C-alpha cells in the first residue's frame, strides 16, 4: 500500500507531502527521483513505476505537476497509478485547473482531499461527487457567501450521506427546477497511414459522456441504433450489466453532474475523412517537400480545425516552407505546424518548399511523420447512433439533448 | 485519449524556495509564535479567520520543510475551536510533529479525545483518525477507549475510520491491540456491517494483522486461513458490486488466494465476475483478469478461452487510459503476449508504434511485435518495422532493426527478410549499418545457405565506416569466416591489424585475432604477414583476454598447424537455437507476478524474461571454461619463469587438453564455440569479472636460449614476442619465429606442415597461357584419388568444389560435364614464384573417384603439390 504522496512542481520543489502510514518516507527520496528524472534527459517521459534504492515510486505528471507516491511492498500497479490519476483529476476539478500557484494557494484543501481519498495507504473515496459533499470547493460563491453570512466554515454541515447509501456514486437526492440530461458522443480517430499511402490501422475510441441534472433517483435507459459495431466497452459503475448482456441497452441511475457513462472501441474502420499525401525528394543536399491535404470521404458535416504537424529531422539546417492556404509556422523545437482550418472549395491546400540538409548529407534518411488534427461537429465517424433515452418516471419538464463530435486522436501519416 | 500536455522539467535544485525562506525563518517562526499566543485566548469575532491565516502559514512552512515544531504548544492552545478547517489543519500539524515530540503530544490527547465525542460525526471521525496517527508508543493507552466506541459508532464514517485506527494501533503496539480483542470485533464487523467501506477496511486490516501474527500464534494463522474460506469469499463476492472500486480490488486479490473445490465453483465465480472486466477502473480489470488466469491454471482449454476473453478489455484499456495507465496495462499485455503469442497474432496492429509514444512504450511494443510474428503476418510486421528504421528516434530505429532480425531467426521463410536486411546495409546510416551487420552475422550462423547473397553486400562495406565495436566485430567475424568468398578479406584484415593500437575495443581485437587465423588457413600466403603482425600485437596487448588468446594461437600454431586449423576452423553446424530463446517453463512463472509492480519497473522485464537468466548461465559456463584454459596455460609461463622445464610442461598440458593428435575434437570446438559466442553475447559482464584476474607476475622473462631442444625455440619466441628487438640477436633459434611472425628477417621454410609448398592465394593465369602450357608440359603425375561421399554429395553444385579448392589456393580455370562425370581444370602458383601447377581432374560421382593429371613448371615439387591437392580434395564436403 502507498506510504507517502508528494506533489512536486516543475522545478522539482516539494509542494506538498502527505505521509500515509507509520513508516514515514524521508523527503530525500524526492531528490533521488528528481536526479533520476534529469538523468533521463529530455525524455522525461520516464516510466510510471520506478524502483529506487529504497522504494518503488509511482509517478504521474499532469500540467507540469508530478504526483509521486512511494511504497515498499508489492501492490497492484494500477492501483497506484489509477489512484494518482484520480487525485489529479479531483484536484483539477476542485481547483479549476492544475498549476503550481493554484496548488500552493489551496494546499489546505489538497490536504483535506487527500485525507478523505486515502487512509493508511488504502484508497477510499475518489468520486468527486461525494468528496464535494465533504469538502466544499474553493469557489467564488462560497467565498462570497462566507463574507455575507459570516459563516466562515467552507465545509457543508451535512455528512456525506452517500457513504452509507447503496448507490455510492449518487449524492442524496438533489432537486432541480429544470430537469435536464445531455448525452455526448465524443470519438477520437486513431489512424496510421504508411509510406506507401496504405491505411495500416484505423480505429475509433469513443466515450459517451452524460451531463445529468435530474431530481430524485432517476432511472435511465439509453439504447443505440447499431450496438453491434462496438468491439469492446467499459462502463461507469452505475451501468447495470444484465440489460447490456441481454439487449445491449444501458440501464443506469446516473451520478449527478457530468460523468463518463461508457467508453468503447471500434476497430478496423475502412477509411479516413481526410487524405494527406506527403512527397519528399532529396537531391544534392536539398529536400523538396510537397504535402497535399484534401477530403477523401465527405462525412456530411464540415471538417474544421485541420492542422498538420511534423518534426523536422535533426539533420536539417534550415527550412523554407509555404502553403497556398492557411499558415505555416516553424516552432523553436523544429516542429513545423501548418494550420489549415477548413478546406476551401476552390483549391486543394498544399504545403511546399525545401529543406536544406547538413553539409555532408546528400539525401535525407530520416523521414518525418505527419500528425494530423481535425474536428467534425455533429458526426460520430464510427457510425454509432443513439436510438433513444428514456426516463422511468419522467418528471413534468424534462429536457434531453444529444450531440456528437469526432476529432483526430493519434492520426499519423508517415513519409 | 490524448496525453496531457507536459511541460519541460528544469534541472534546478529541488528546494529553491526553502533555501530562501530558511534565512528568515528563525525570526518568522518566533513572530508566528507570538501571534498565535495572542490569538489563543481570544474570543473576538473573526478570530477564526486570523487563526486560519496563521495556521496556513505554519503548515506552508511545514510543507516546504522548515521546522516549526517549536510552535507545538501554541498550536494546541489555538485548537480549541469549532471551525472544522482549523481543526483539520491542526490535526495535520499535530500528526506531523507528534512523533518527534512525544511529550508535547500528550497535550493534544485531551482535545482530541474531547473531539472524539463531538456530536458531528465528521469531527468524531477526523479526531479519531488524528489520534491514531500520532503514533507515539507511550500514548496507546489513550487510544483504546475512543477506538472501542468508534467501532460501535452509529455513523459509518466513524466506524470506517476506527477500523483503520485499529490497524494503526496494531502497528504502534501489537499487544495492546490484541489484548483489547480488537481483531475479533473487526471480524464481526466485516461479516455484519452494512457499510461496504467498513467491511473493506476490516478486511484489509485483518489481513495485515493476522498475517503478522500468524508466525507466533496458531489461532491467528487459523483466522488468516478462515479469511479465504468459502463462506467469507462467497459473502464478499455476492456483495462485490456494492464495494467501492478500490475495495473491489482488495476482494479480488483475496479471491486469487481461494482454491475452489470443483470446476462448477470456478465457473460460478467467473460468471459472477465477468462484468468486472468492463469496469472503468483499470485496477479492477487487471485484478479480475488475475483471478481468471489463476482459477483456470489447471484447466488448459478454459485457460485458452480466458485468454480470448481478456484480450479485448486489455486492448481497450491500453488505448483508452492516460499514458501511465496504458503503460502499466501494456506491460501486463506484454507478459501475456510472451506467454501465448498465438492468441494475439491477429491483433498485431495494436502493437504498432505511434509517433508520440515514449520510447519505453515503443520498446515493449517492438518486443510484442516480434513475439506475435508468424507465417501469416510476418510480411506486414516486417514492413512496419522497416518503417521505424528511418525513425527520428535512433534507439528505436536500432531496436526495430534488431526486431526484424529476431523475426528472421524465428521464421523458416527468411527470403524477404534477408532482402530487407541487405537494404538496411545500403541505407548509408552508420547506426543502421551497424545493427544490420550484427544481424546478418547472426543470420549467417543460422542460415549458412544465405552466405552468398549476404557476403556480396557485406563485401562492399568499408570497414572504415563501421565504428561500433559490436558491428565491427561482426564484420571481422564475417571477413574471417568467409575470407574465401571475399576477394580482399586478407587485405582488409591486414589494414585492420595495422591499426591495432587505435582499436579500443578488446572485443574487436579478439575477433580480429580469430579472423586473421581463420583467414590464414584459407588463404595462407596473403594473410601470413597480417597473422604475424596480429599475433605480435596481440601478445603485446595489455588486455588479458587478447593477450591470452594471441599466445594460445601462437603456441598451438607452433605445436601443430593442422591441429591449429582444426581448432580455428572446425566444421561448423548451423546454429539452430540461440541461447536467448525463451523456454516456456520460466514464462509460466509470470503468473505469480501478474498484477504486481515487478511487471512494471524496468529491471524486471529482464529478470523475468529468460534471456537474462540463460545469459548468466552461459556466461558462467563460459567463464569456467575460460578459467580452465587459463589454468592450462598458466603453468607454462610460470615454469619458464622459474625453471627450464616450462615448454615441456606446456606440451604436457596441451596433452591434457587433448589437443594431441588422437582425440582432438573436444576442446578445440569448444574454443571455437567460444569465439562465436563472443559475438552473440556481450562481453561487458565478462570483462568485469576478468578485470580482476591478473596474473601479476612477469610471466614472460627473456630466456637465455642455449638449449638445443625444439622447445627452446618456444621460449625464445616468447622472448622475441615480448621484446621484438631481441629477435635479431638470437639467430640460433629464430628461424621459426621469423616466418611465423613475419618480423622482417628473410628466412627459410615455412610452417612445419604443410611443409614444403606454399601456394599463392592470388594466383592469376589467363586461359590462353593455360592452354599453351598444358600443351607444352609433360604429365608429371597421374593418379586416382577417391572422393569422400560427402564430397560427392556436395558436387551436385560444382561451384562448391571450385570455392573449396580456391580456399586451398587452387584455382579453377575451366569446368564442365554432366553427372556422373565432371571435368575440371585447375591451376596453382607457388608462393612468391611464378612456378605454375596445372591440373586436369575428372571426377566420377558414381564411383567416387577422381582421375588427376598434374603438370608442373617445376617438376621437383610436383609430388608435394599432388599431396596438397589430394588433401584439399579429400577435405571437400567434410568442411
Write up what this structure looks like.
The complex is a heterodimer of chains A (415) and B (879). Chain A is of the alpha+beta class and 415 residues long. Chain A has 3 domains: 4-149, Beta-Lactamase (2-Layer Sandwich); 179-269 and 381-414, Immunoglobulin-like (Sandwich); 274-377, Mu homology domain, subdomain B (Immunoglobulin-like), CATH 2.60.40. Chain A has helices at 28-39, 77-95, 100-105, 107-117, 128-134, 140-149, 241-247; strands at residues 4-8, 14-19, 49-51, 56-62, 65-71, 118-119, 122-123, 179-193, 199-213, 220-224, 232-235, 249-252, 257-266, 274-283, 286-295, 303-311, 316-323, 327-330, 335-341, 350-357, 369-377, 386-391, 398-414. In chain A, the strands form 5 sheets. In chain A, strands 11-13-9-8-23-21-16-19-18 form a 9-stranded mixed β-sheet, with no helix packed on it. In chain A, strands 2-1-5-4-3 form a 5-stranded antiparallel β-sheet. Chain A has a 4-stranded antiparallel β-sheet with strand order 14-15-20-17, with no helix packed on it. With 879 residues, chain B is mainly α. Chain B contains 44 helices and 5 strands. Chain B has a 5-stranded antiparallel β-sheet with strand order 1-5-4-3-2, sandwiched between helices. In chain B, helix 28 (524-539) crosses helix 29. Chains A and B meet through strand 2, helix 1, strand 3, strand 4 and helix 2 of A and helix 1, helix 2, helix 4, helix 6 and helix 8 of B.
Amino acid at each position: 500500500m502507498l506510504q507517502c504522496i508528494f506533489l512536486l512542481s516543475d522545478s522539482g520543489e516539494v509542494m506538498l507531502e502527505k505521509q500515509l502510514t507509520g513508516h514515514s518516507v524521508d523527503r530525500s527520496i524526492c531528490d533521488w527521483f528528481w536526479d533520476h528524472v534529469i538523468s533521463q534527459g529530455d525524455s522525461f517521459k520516464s516510466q510510471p513505476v520506478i524502483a529506487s534504492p529504497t522504494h518503488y515510486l509511482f509517478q504521474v505528471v499532469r500540467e507540469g505537476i508530478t504526483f509521486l507516491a512511494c511504497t515498499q511492498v508489492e501492490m497492484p500497479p494500477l492501483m497506484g497509478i489509477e489512484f494518482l490519476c484520480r487525485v489529479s483529476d479531483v484536484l483539477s476539478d476542485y481547483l479549476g485547473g492544475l498549476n503550481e500557484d493554484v496548488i500552493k494557494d489551496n494546499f489546505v484543501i489538497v490536504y483535506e482531499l487527500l485525507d478523505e481519498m486515502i487512509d493508511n495507504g488504502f484508497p477510499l473515496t475518489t468520486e468527486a461527487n461525494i468528496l464535494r459533499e465533504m469538502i466544499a470547493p474553493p469557489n467564488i460563491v462560497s467565498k462570497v457567501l462566507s463574507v455575507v453570512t459570516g459563516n466562515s466554515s467552507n465545509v457543508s454541515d451535512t455528512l456525506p450521506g452517500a457513504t452509507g447509501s447503496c448507490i455510492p456514486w449518487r449524492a442524496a437526492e438533489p432537486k432541480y427546477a429544470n430537469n435536464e440530461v445531455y448525452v455526448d458522443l465524443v470519438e477520437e480517430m486513431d489512424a496510421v497511414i504508411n509510406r506507401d499511402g496504405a491505411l495500416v490501422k484505423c480505429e475509433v475510441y469513443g466515450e459517451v459522456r452524460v451531463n445529468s441534472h435530474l431530481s430524485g433517483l432517476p432511472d435511465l435507459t439509453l439504447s443505440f441504433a447499431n450496438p453491434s459495431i462496438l468491439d469492446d466497452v467499459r462502463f461507469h459503475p452505475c451501468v447495470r450489466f444484465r440489460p447490456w448482456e441481454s439487449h445491449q441497452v444501458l440501464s443506469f441511475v446516473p451520478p449527478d453532474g457530468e460523468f463518463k457513462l461508457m467508453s468503447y472501441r471500434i476497430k478496423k474502420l475502412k477509411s479516413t475523412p481526410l487524405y494527406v499525401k506527403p512527397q519528399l525528394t532529396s537531391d544534392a543536399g536539398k529536400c523538396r517537400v510537397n504535402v497535399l491535404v484534401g477530403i477523401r470521404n465527405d462525412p456530411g458535416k464540415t471538417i474544421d480545425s485541420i492542422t498538420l504537424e511534423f518534426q523536422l529531422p535533426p539533420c536539417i539546417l534550415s527550412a523554407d516552407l509555404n502553403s497556398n492556404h492557411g499558415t505555416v509556422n516553424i516552432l523553436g523545437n523544429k516542429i513545423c505546424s501548418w494550420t489549415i482550418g477548413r478546406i476551401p472549395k476552390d483549391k486543394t491546400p498544399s504545403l511546399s518548399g525545401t529543406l536544406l540538409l547538413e553539409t555532408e548529407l546528400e539525401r535525407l534518411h530520416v523521414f518525418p511523420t505527419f500528425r494530423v488534427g481535425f474536428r467534425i461537429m455533429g458526426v460520430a465517424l464510427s457510425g454509432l447512433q443513439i436510438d433513444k433515452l428514456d426516463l422511468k418516471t419522467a418528471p413534468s419538464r424534462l429536457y434531453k439533448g444529444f450531440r456528437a463530435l469526432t476529432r483526430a486522436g493519434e492520426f499519423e501519416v508517415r513519409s | 485519449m490524448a496525453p496531457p500536455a507536459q511541460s519541460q522539467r528544469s534541472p534546478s535544485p529541488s528546494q529553491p524556495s526553502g533555501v530562501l525562506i530558511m534565512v528568515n525563518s528563525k525570526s518568522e517562526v518566533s513572530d508566528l509564535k507570538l501571534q498565535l499566543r495572542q490569538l489563543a485566548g481570544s474570543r473576538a469575532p473573526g478570530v477564526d479567520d486570523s487563526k486560519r491565516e496563521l495556521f496556513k502559514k505554519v503548515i506552508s512552512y511545514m510543507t516546504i520543510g522548515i521546522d516549526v515544531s517549536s510552535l507545538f504548544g501554541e498550536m494546541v492552545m489555538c485548537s480549541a475551536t469549532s471551525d472544522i478547517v482549523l481543526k483539520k489543519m491542526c490535526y495535520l500539524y499535530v500528526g506531523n510533529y507528534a512523533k518527534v515530540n512525544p511529550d508535547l503530544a500528550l497535550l493534544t490527547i485531551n482535545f482530541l479525545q474531547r473531539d472524539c465525542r463531538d456530536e458531528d460525526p465528521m469531527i468524531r471521525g477526523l479526531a479519531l483518525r488524528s489520534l491514531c496517527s500520532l503514533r507515539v508508543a507511550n500514548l496507546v493507552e489513550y487510544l483504546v477507549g475512543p477506538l472501542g466506541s468508534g467501532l460501535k459508532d452509529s455513523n459509518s464514517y466513524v466506524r470506517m475510520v476506527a477500523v483503520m485506527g485499529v490497524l494503526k494501533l496494531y502497528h504502534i503496539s501489537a499487544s495492546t491491540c490484541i489484548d483489547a480483542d480488537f481483531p475479533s470485533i473487526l471480524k464481526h464487523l466485516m461479516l455484519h456491517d452494512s457499510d461496504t467501506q467498513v467491511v473493506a477496511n476490516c478486511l484489509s486490516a485483518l489481513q495485515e494483522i493476522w498475517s503478522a501474527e500468524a508466525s507466533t500464534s496458531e489461532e491467528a494463522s487459523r483466522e488468516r486461513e478462515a479469511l479465504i474460506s468459502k463462506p467469507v469469499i462467497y459473502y464478499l463476492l455476492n456483495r462485490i458490486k456494492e464495494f467501492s472500486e478500490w475495495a473491489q480490488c482488495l476482494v479480488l486479490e483475496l479471491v486469487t488466494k481461494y482454491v475452489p473445490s470443483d470446476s462448477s465453483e470456478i465457473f460460478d465465480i467467473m460468471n459472477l465476475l465477468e462484468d468486472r472486466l468492463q469496469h472503468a477502473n483499470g485496477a479492477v480489470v487487471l485484478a479480475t483478469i488475475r483471478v481468471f488466469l489463476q482459477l483456470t491454471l489447471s484447466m488448459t482449454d478454459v485457460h485458452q478461452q480466458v485468454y480470448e476473453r481478456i484480450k479485448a478489455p486489455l486492448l481497450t484499456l491500453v488505448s483508452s487510459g492516460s499514458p501511465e495507465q496504458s503503460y502499466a496495462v501494456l506491460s501486463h499485455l506484454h507478459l501475456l503476449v510472451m506467454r501465448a503469442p498465438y492468441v494475439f497474432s491477429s491483433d498485431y496492429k495494436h502493437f504498432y508504434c505511434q509517433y508520440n509514444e515514449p520510447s519505453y512504450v515503443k520498446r515493449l511494443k517492438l518486443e510484442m511485435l516480434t513475439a506475435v510474428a508468424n507465417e501469416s503476418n510476418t510480411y506486414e510486421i516486417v514492413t512496419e518495422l522497416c518503417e521505424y528504421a528511418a525513425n527520428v528516434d535512433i534507439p528505436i530505429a536500432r531496436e526495430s532493426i534488431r526486431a526484424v532480425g529476431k523475426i528472421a531467426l524465428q521464421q523458416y521463410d527468411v527470403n524477404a527478410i534477408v532482402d530487407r536486411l541487405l537494404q538496411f546495409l545500403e541505407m548509408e546510416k552508420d547506426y543502421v549499418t551497424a545493427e544490420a551487420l550484427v544481424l546478418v552475422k547472426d543470420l549467417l550462423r543460422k542460415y549458412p545457405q544465405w552466405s552468398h547473397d549476404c557476403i556480396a553486400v557485406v563485401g562492399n562495406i568499408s570497414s572504415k565506416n563501421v565504428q561500433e565495436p559490436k558491428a565491427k566485430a561482426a564484420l571481422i567475424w564475417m571477413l574471417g569466416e568467409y575470407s574465401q568468398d571475399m576477394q580482399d578479406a586478407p587485405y582488409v584484415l591486414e589494414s585492420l591489424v595495422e591499426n591495432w593500437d587505435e582499436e579500443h575495443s578488446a572485443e574487436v581485437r579478439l575477433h580480429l585475432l580469430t579472423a586473421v587465423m581463420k583467414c590464414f588457413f584459407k588463404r595462407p600466403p596473403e594473410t601470413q604477414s597480417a597473422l604475424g603482425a596480429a599475433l605480435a600485437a596481440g601478445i603485446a596487448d595489455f588486455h588479458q583476454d587478447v593477450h591470452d588468446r594471441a599466445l594460445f594461437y601462437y603456441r598451438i600454431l607452433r605445436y601443430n598447424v593442422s591441429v591449429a586449423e582444426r581448432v580455428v576452423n572446425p566444421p561448423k553446424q548451423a546454429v539452430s537455437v540461440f541461447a536467448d530463446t525463451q523456454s516456456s517453463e520460466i514464462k509460466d512463472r509470470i503468473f505469480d507476478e501478474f498484477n504486481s509492480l515487478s511487471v512494471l519497473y524496468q529491471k524486471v522485464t529482464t529478470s523475468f524474461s529468460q534471456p537474462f537468466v540463460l545469459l548468466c548461465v552461459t556466461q558462467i559456463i563460459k567463464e569456467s571454461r575460460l578459467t580452465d584454459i587459463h589454468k592450462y596455460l598458466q603453468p607454462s609461463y610460470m615454469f619458464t619463469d622459474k625453471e627450464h622445464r616450462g615448454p615441456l610442461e606446456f606440451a604436457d598440458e596441451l596433452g591434457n587438453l587433448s589437443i594431441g593428435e588422437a582425440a582432438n575434437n573436444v576442446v578445440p570446438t569448444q574454443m571455437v564455440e567460444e569465439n562465436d559466442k563472443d559475438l552473440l553475447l556481450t562481453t561487458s559482464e565478462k570483462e568485469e569479472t576478468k578485470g580482476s584476474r591478473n596474473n601479476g607476475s612477469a610471466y614472460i622473462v627473456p630466456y637465455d636460449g642455449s638449449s638445443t631442444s625444439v622447445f627452446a625455440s618456444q621460449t625464445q619466441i616468447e622472448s622475441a614476442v615480448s621484446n621484438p628487438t631481441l629477435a635479431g640477436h638470437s639467430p640460433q633459434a629464430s628461424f621459426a619465429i621469423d616466418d611465423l611472425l613475419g618480423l622482417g628477417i628473410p628466412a627459410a621454410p615455412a610452417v612445419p606442415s604443410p611443409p614444403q609448398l606454399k601456394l599463392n592465394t592470388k594466383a592469376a593465369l589467363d586461359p590462353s597461357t593455360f592452354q599453351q602450357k598444358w600443351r607444352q608440359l609433360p604429365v608429371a603425375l597421374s593418379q586416382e584419388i577417391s572422393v569422400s561421399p560427402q564430397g560427392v554429395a556436395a558436387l551436385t553444385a560444382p561451384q562448391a568444389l571450385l570455392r573449396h579448392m580456391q580456399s586451398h589456393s587452387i584455382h579453377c580455370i575451366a569446368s564442365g560435364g554432366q553427372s556422373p562425370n565432371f571435368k575440371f581444370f585447375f591451376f596453382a602458383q607457388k608462393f612468391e614464384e611464378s612456378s605454375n601447377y596445372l591440373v586436369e581432374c575428372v571426377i566420377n560421382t558414381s564411383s567416387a573417384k577422381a582421375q588427376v593429371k598434374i603438370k608442373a613448371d617445376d617438376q621437383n615439387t610436383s609430388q608435394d603439390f599432388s599431396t596438397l591437392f589430394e588433401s584439399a580434395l579429400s577435405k571437400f564436403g567434410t568442411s
